TrEMBL record:
Alphabetized UniProt keyword annotations: NAD, Oxidoreductase
Disulfide bond is among the record's keywords: no
Domain D-isomer specific 2-hydroxyacid dehydrogenase catalytic: 17-317
Name by which UniProt lists this protein: D-2-hydroxyacid dehydrogenase
Length: 318
């Protein structure tokens, strides 16, 4: 099998290897691939592996040898799934590899906002504490999580992990979910979207991006939320209307926004969120721990191996 990895750098910048894949065929790795380069690079491939390279119907028309697309991520919106099915191309993804890491980042953002560790660390590097008149100081609000209401949109693997951690912090957990209330633990309260918006001291988004969840948090949603609410997005950028969120922050209608994802990645330099001191943005790194990427690369190889052996797994276009 001729295996071509079109954007290998994101998941493996050099601290992992491709040994498991190299046991399965002839592997060519490109760190990055532009839209203009993808046809030429993939034209002789039986298998391509991608992360963010877009594979649409027009691209598939020009790759008659292609049999398999392995997405090195959980989300598969980068591939035209129906077109791949029409072309007889199997598409697989990697489910649940980053659950612990994304849940950890969710709380890293929450704690960055509530405890402001980086702020005080930088202040002290500039000797502020050394010259302080009292034994301590603080110039930001500090919040205890215990007893606060955490609202979760989406109770998949990551949402449930976040809920469990929140419970350990002593938080009251509310969720907007398609799951039946009787199937939830008794410490999670199921609510409607409006109920979730109204009750949350912290609102964390963990749902897939669909037509129904696009701009789940918009101008109307923000009006229903507490002006002190902390909004967290480690799901997908377009789950929020970024201009509406920036405006709410600017006018004191939202307490803070913590996000590891943005609508456009990399984001535009003039994105209004970058001008808001209560916006805490990380560059889509929740999934990128060494442990999560190791699991990812192992599952990528397992998916390819299963396909070659004739019983594909984690197929998203059956």
């Amino acid at each position: 099998m001729n295996i071509v990895i079109l954007d290998g750098y994101a998941s493996n910048p050099g601290d992992l290897n491709w040994d498991l894949l190299e046991q399965l065929g002839n592997v060519t790795v490109y760190p990055r691939t532009t839209d203009e380069e993808k046809i030429e690079r993939a034209k002789d491939a039986d298998i391509i592996l991608i992360n963010k390279v877009q594979i649409d119907s027009e691209t598939l028309d020009q790759l008659p040898k292609l049999k398999y697309i392995g997405i090195q991520a959980t989300g598969y919106n980068v591939v035209d799934i129906e077109a791949a099915k029409r072309h007889g191309v199997v598409v697989t993804n990697i489910p649940a590899y980053s659950t612990d890491s994304v849940a950890q980042m969710t709380f890293a953002l929450i704690l960055a906002i509530t405890n402001r560790v980086e702020h005080y660390t930088l202040e002290n590097r500039n000797e502020r504490w050394a010259y302080n008149k009292d034994f301590c100081y603080w110039d930001t609000p500090l919040m205890e999580l215990s007893g606060k209401c955490l609202g979760i949109m989406g109770l998949g693997n990551i949402g449930m992990k976040v809920a469990t951690i929140a419970r350990d912090f002593g938080m009251d957990v509310y969720a907007c979910t398609s799951k039946n209330a009787c199937d939830l633990p008794d410490w999670i309260t199921k609510v409607s979207k409006d109920g979730l918006l109204a009750v949350s001291d912290i609102l964390s988004l963990h749902c897939p991006l669909t037509d129904d969840t696009y701009h789940f948090v918009d101008t109307d949603s923000l009006k229903k939320m507490k002006p002190s609410c902390i909004l967290i997005n480690t799901g997908r950028g377009p789950l929020v209307d970024e201009e509406a969120v920036a405006s709410a922050l600017h006018h004191g209608k939202l307490g803070a926004y913590g996000a590891d994802v943005m609508t456009q990645e990399p984001p535009a330099q003039d994105n209004p969120l970058f001008n808001e001191p209560n916006a805490f943005i990380t560059p889509h790194i929740a999934w990128a721990t060494l442990e999560a990427r190791t699991r990812l690369n192992k599952q990528v190889a397992a998916n390819v191996k299963a396909f070659i052996e004739g019983h594909p797994i984690n197929v998203v276009n059956p």
